[in-house]
Design brief:
The protein has 141 residues and is mainly α. The chain has 4 helices and 2 strands; from the N terminus they run αβααβα. The relative contact order is 0.16. This is Superfamily IV 4 TMS phage holin.
């Protein structure tokens, strides 16, 4: 049960990091086509949850379809599921995340996919290191 909760927390945090960093990167280029709506943080959280659930549900489904019908497409399953999950998040929580224009719909999913992928790999290591350091501190006290 703890493992499931930890994985869920990592996945949700990675999704949030991916979306927020994409928003910040788009802001640096002054592109208003991928925006987190900070005025209503609860709908942003809803958008992240919808995105994460969409990724979790669609990824195995798309991977199975690709494996069965076009194995060469297995490499892009993550990118396709990111696009579809972002579309679901925008449709369900438009007050938390807006995506418009070609930059938002072409570059946005690619950046979210890359950042989320790296965050999913790096967060468990960081969390484990912090947990181990925390255990050391408690033993010394």
């Amino acid at each position: 049960m703890i493992k499931l909760l930890a994985r869920t927390a990592v996945f949700l945090l990675a999704a949030a990091i991916g979306i927020v960093l994409t928003d910040l990167l788009f802001g640096l280029f002054d592109w208003q086509t991928f925006d987190v709506v900070w005025a209503n943080p609860l709908t942003f959280v809803l958008a992240v949850v919808i995105f994460a659930i969409g990724q979790a549900v669609l990824s195995p489904l798309f991977a199975q379809v690709a494996q069965r019908n076009a194995p060469a497409l297995l490499g892009v399953v993550g990118l396709v599921t990111t696009y579809v999950a972002l579309l679901l998040a925008v449709l369900v929580a438009p007050d938390g995340l807006t995506i418009e224009g070609w930059q938002g719909w072409v570059l946005g999913p690619v950046i979210v996919w890359l950042v989320t992928m790296f965050a999913t790999f790096l967060l468990p290591a960081v969390m484990l290191r912090n947990a181990l350091q925390g255990d050391g501190r408690r033993g010394a006290a």
